[in-house]
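Weekly modeling sync, notes
Attendees: S.R. (lead), two postdocs, one rotation student

Agenda item 3: backlog of single-chain predictions. S.R. asked that every request posted to the team notebook include the full sequence so nobody has to chase files. The rotation student volunteered to paste the first one in as an example of the format we agreed on. Action items at the bottom.

Example entry:
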Amino acid sequence: MELIPESTQQELLSANIPKEWANKSALINGFKSSIKQYTSFNLLCQYFISPHFDIYIYQLQNKEAVRVFLQSNTCKWLLFYQVKGQNGQFEIEEHQFEISEKSSFFAKTSPGKSIKLDLGIGGFLFICCNLKMPLASTLQNYYTPVFKNFDQNPILLKHIPINHQMEWEKILNPEGPIDLLPSSLHSKIQLVLANFCTHYKERINIDLKAGMNPLEKEVFEIKTYIDCYPFKRHTLQSLCRLCSLTKNQLRLFFKRQFGKTVFQYSIDKRLSYSAEMLINQPNRSIKDIAISCGFRKSQHFIYQFRQKYQQTPLNYRKTVLKTV
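Predicted structure, as returned to the notebook:
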């Protein structure tokens, strides 16, 4: 799979490569890589090729809005995850849709045809899994029970759950040589595909839930959004931009539906996420985790954490790691 810049983009031979790429700190061991610079953006491509699948990881640093094209002579099924970056506009087989950070889509494509991407200013990081025909039986096992037919295209899952995000990001952070075996990467992709279908089915079931009026659906979608971004500081104002509800409506209906205020629910999710980080990333400082989970001051984080878990984050980490 190749990412092709629009014809107006000229490749620069004397590339001014970003420092983190030049120092190879962003490179994944075991993946091949290439770095290019164009007039409007820098591009880092890392890739892993196998008979059953190909993995392409693209990082772009855009100086201005750019248009690029994904094209492959072998890709018939594309599983895509946007790790980082603001909204992008995609066009696949004349279908147009928008995808944002921590969102994913699954698409049937035609070899040789391009997927158009319009991306804004800033940094983007996305993973493309090109699934080849030997995976056809796996696709049928996961895909057909959820979707009516193979012509539904593309299948978009906005704001995927945090556990599914972690499965995707294991591809970015292999823990050793064993994780880079084709069989290991293959199993990770199968798990990602299975989770994608499962979460999509759950969203569809929510939409079809009997007796749920349009306002209740919007409130449920806001809850889903908070679940998928537990590390962000959510405010009524920012959440209302995602729906048609006023602040008072969101405050009222959310409390009625879930028994907690938006603020209480958001804090609880951020604290649960921080507890996972304390265990899964034992070398990160308490202050760093607090900031990563949307707390401006570590003292406030420690106070809120103690309220939920009856101990400080440091004691929680020590206690849990002793029992692991």
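Discussion: group reviewed the output briefly. The radius of gyration is 21 Å.
Action items: rotation student to repeat for the remaining queue; S.R. to check formatting next week.
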